[in-house]
Batch of 4 targets.
Target 1
Amino acid sequence: MHLLIMLISLIIACWLRCSRIASPDNWPGNWHLAWRRSLFLFLFPPALIFSTAIAVLFMGTQGTMGGLYTDSISYILALVSLTFFSILCVKLALEGCLSIQSVHQCPQIDLTGKQVRLLETAALFAGQVGFWRPELVVSQGLLQTLSPIHLESVLAHEQGHYHYRDTFWFFWLGWVRSCTIWLPNTEFLWQDLLMLREIRADSYAAAQVDPLILAESLLLVVSSNPVASEICCAALGTSISIPEPCRKHRLEQRIEALLAPVDCFSEIPGFSWHIFLLVLLPLLTVLFHS
C-alpha cells in the first residue's frame, strides 16, 4: 500500500512538471506572476515527494492500511531517499562554507563607505557570497573598468540581492534542484528562476539609480567573460557555464524589464500560496495506518 502511495505522488509530480510550463517568455512584463508560477512548479512536485517519503518513514514497516498489509520495501526506499537528500544538503552546505572561507582570504577594502572584498582578477565580477548575511565581492577589473556612476548601479543591483536574501533562499532552491534533477523540466525551471532573480534585483536597483545607466552596466558586465572559478558563486548555486545564446537572451529580457514603464514586480492578484497545503495530504495518510 505504501508503494502505491509513493507511486501516486511520483505520477502527480511528473504530471505537474510535464504540464504547460510558465516560462518568463510567456509572461512579458508580468514578471511577478512568472516568478510565482515558476517557483510553484519548481517546488511543489519535490515537496510532495518529500512529504510522502516522510509519511512512509513515519508509518514504519508494520501494520495495515486500507485493509492491505504494508511491506519493508517502501520503508527502505523512503529511508534511502531521505538519507540521500540529507547528504546532498550537507555537501552543498560544506561547499558554501568553503566559498565563504575563500572570500575571507580576499583583502577587504572600503568602497563608497561600505566594506567589500576585492577579488584580484581582470574579469568583471560583482556578487554576494554567503548565506543569510553574505559579503559583497567585487573584482579588480570591475573597479578599473566601470565609471563611478556605472559602479553605483552595479552595487545597487547587488544590494537588491542582499535585500531579498537571494544567497540564502537560492541555497535551498539549489538543494531541491540537486535532489530532484531527475524530474522533468527541473533545469528549465531552475534557469527561469535564476533569470527572474536577476530581474527582481534589477527592479530594486532601478528604484535607486537611472535604469538606462543600469542597462549600460548590464551590457558591460554580462557581456564580459565570466569569472572562471566555481567557488565564487557556490553559495548561490549559480552555474557559470551558461551557453552564449542563453546569456544574450537573458540580457535582452533584463533590459526589456528595466525599460518597462511599470513596476515589473508589482503585486498581481489571482495566485494563492495556500495551494501548498496540498503537500501535507500524504501526511494525512498516517491516520489510516494501523
Note: Confidence is low (pLDDT under 50) at residues 228-241.
Target 2
Amino acid sequence: MKRIPVLFENDNCLVLNKPSGLPVQGGAGVKVSLDSILSESYSPRPLLVHRLDRDTSGLIVVAKTREAAAGFSALFSGRYAEKNANNPQLVKRYLGVCSGIPDSKTGVIRTDLDVPGRDRTKTHEARIPKKAETFYRLLSTGIAGEVIFSLLELELGTGRMHQIRRHLAHTGHPLLGDDKYGDFSLNKKLRKISGLKHLLLHASRLIIPPSPSLIPEGLDISVPLPEYFSAFLGLYNS
C-alpha cells in the first residue's frame, strides 16, 4: 500500500506504520488521510478502531470487517479486558521526548482530562472531565544547545484524546515539537538549532492478547523510530 508499511495482516485486521503528518480521518482542509488511502487500496474499506494524532507516528490497527471492528474497539477501550479477566490486557507503548527531566525515573500521571460530552443540565455539548492515566519511564537525557530533554517510554492506562501530550504539558514537561500543547518558544529555538519540525512522539510497540475471533495467536510488534526522531537523538542524546 502506497506510503503506509503493512507490518501484520490477517483476515481480521491490518497493523500499519503511520507516518507523522498523515491524519487518520478526513475533514475540513484534509485532502489525504489514512482512511482515504485505505479506501483506494482495499474493498471493502478497512475500519478505524483507534486513533493516532496527525503528527504522531507509529503503530495503528484497522479492522477488515464490522465484526472485527467491534471486537478491536472493545479491546482498545478496555471492555474486552473486563470481560476476559484471565487474559493479558492490550498494551500500547510510545516513545516521546519531553523538555526537562521528570522528578522521578518512573511514575504515573493521573490528571483528569476534559473530553467532549453532553451536560444533562444543558442542551448543548460540553466538556466533561474524565479520569486519565499515563505511565512513564525515563530512558535517557540529553541537551540540544541549552535545551535539556528526556527520552521517555510511555504507556496508556486510558485512551483520552491527545492524552500523552496533554499530560506531559500539565507536568511542565511538554513534548518537543508539540505545536498545540507545547512550549512554542522552545520549539522555535529547536527548529533553529536542529531543524526539528516534527512532534517527537512515536507509537513504538503494540501487544495484543490472544483472541480467537481477532488474532488467535496474539501479537507483540514493535516499529523503529522514524529517521527525523532517531537523528535528533543521535545528535543530542547522552
Note: The chain has a mean pLDDT of 91.
Target 3
Amino acid sequence: MKIMRKIVEIDQDLCNGCGQCLPNCAEGAMEIVDGKARLKADKLCDGLGACLGHCPMGALKVVERQAEDFDEAAVQAQTAHKPMPCGCPGSNILTFAQPAAGAGQSSDPQDSCLGHWPVKLRLVPPAAPFLRGAEVIIAADCAPVALADFNSRLLGQAVMIACPKFDDARPYLEKLVEMFRHAGIKKVTVLRMEVPCCSGLSSLVRQAAAVAGTGVPVEDLIVTRTGQTRPAEAEGLAEITA
C-alpha cells in the first residue's frame, strides 16, 4: 500500500554514476543501472537521506510523495550476509542476537555480547539499522585490549571503534553528525585511553554532538593502561561546543 512519506529522489540528469552513494545507504536501496544510480524499490528506502552528503553532483534529495511504506523486514532479507556496495564481503551489515542478560551482564562469561557488524567507525554507515534508537559505545582501538570487561559492556549497546591518533578525524566528524541527527541515538559513552593523543576521540564525539544539536548525552570515560576506568570530568575536561 502506498502512503505519503519522505523518500530519496535521484536526479538522473545530475547523476554521473560514480556510486559514492551506495556504500552510504545501509539499506542497500540503491544500485547502478546503465550508468545511473536508481532506487531498487521504494520500500527499501527509509527516507532519512544519509546518502545525500556523499553525492558530489548534488543529484540526491529527500522529497515527499506517494510511495510504498518502508519495509525493514525486506531490507534485512536483502542485506543479510551480502557484501556492501563497496565490494568488501567483510563489511556487510549484520545484526545478531545478544546473549540473555542478568544484572547488565551476559549469563555466560564465554558469550560474546556483540550484537552487530561492522564495528569500525570508518565502515559503519550513518543509517545503519543497529544505530536507530540505540545507546552507543565509541571506543578507542586500544581500549578493548586494556579493559577486561569490555565485551560485557556491549550488552544492549551498539559499538564503534576508531583511533584518534592515526585515523583521519574529518570524515568521522561528518559521519557522527549525521548519525546523531538521523539515528535517534539515546546516549554515547566514549571509552578512550589515558594517553594524551587519545583525548581527540572525546573532542571529536562532543564536537559532533554539539554540531548535530540533538542534545544526545555524552559520557566520557578514561581507561588506564592497567585496565581501570575513571570519568574524564574528574580531570576537569570541559565539553567542546561548536
Note: The domain at 94-235 is CATH 3.40.50 (Rossmann fold).
Target 4
Amino acid sequence: MEILTHGLSSKFENFTALRKPIAPAVELSNPANIEYEVVRTTLLTGLLKTLQHNKSASFTKGFKIFEISDVVIPDDTHVVCESIVGARNSRRICAVYAGPTSGFEIIHGLVDRIMTLCEVAPEQAYIANSGKVEEEKFRVAREAYTYTIKESTEETYFPGRCADVLIRTPNSADDEWTKIGSFGILHPEVLKNFDIQYPASCVEMNLEPLI
C-alpha cells in the first residue's frame, strides 16, 4: 500500500526514536508544535507513525506500506540554482513490513526487485551467494552498473540482521562502492518508541543514483 506522509517531524522522532544521534537538519524557526521542528531527513519515521496509528488493522497476514518521496538534507556544496540555500532534496524509497514474523526475507527480496527494475545487476560474488546463477543470464542491466550488500552497523536495526546497499557506476573507481541505503529488522527499542507491537523490517534507499 502506497502512503504519503508529512514532510515535517520532531527531532525525537526523526533521530532519537530511530536510535540515531541528532544530526544537522533544516529547522523551523517558529514551529507550530513540537512535531514540526525539522524537515525530515528520513522517510522511515512517517511509515512507522502510520503503523502506530493503525494498530486496530489486522496484522495476521502482514502489513506492507511504502513511500516514494523527498527528504531534505543540509548541503552547502551541491548547488542546483544560482544561490546556495544550504540544503537539497533527495528522492528516497522506504518500505516497511510488519506482521507475525519479521519479514526480513520479504524486504531483502524487495531490494533485489528494485534493483532489477532499475536495471542494476548484482556483483558476481552476490550472485554466487544467492544461488541464482542461471537466472542472471536473462537479466537486463545497464553496462557498468552493479550492486552488492554488506553487513550494516546502523543502530536502527537489530544487530547482525541488517545490511547496507552499495552500488558501483561507470564513474566509480574499480574498488569504489557508494552506499545508497540500508535494510534490516528494526530494533525492538525503535518499535517500542513508536508503540508497534509486531516485529518489522524496513528498507530505505536513495533513488537518485539509480534513475
Note: Residues 8-210 form a domain with the BirA Bifunctional Protein; domain 2 fold (CATH 3.30.930.10).
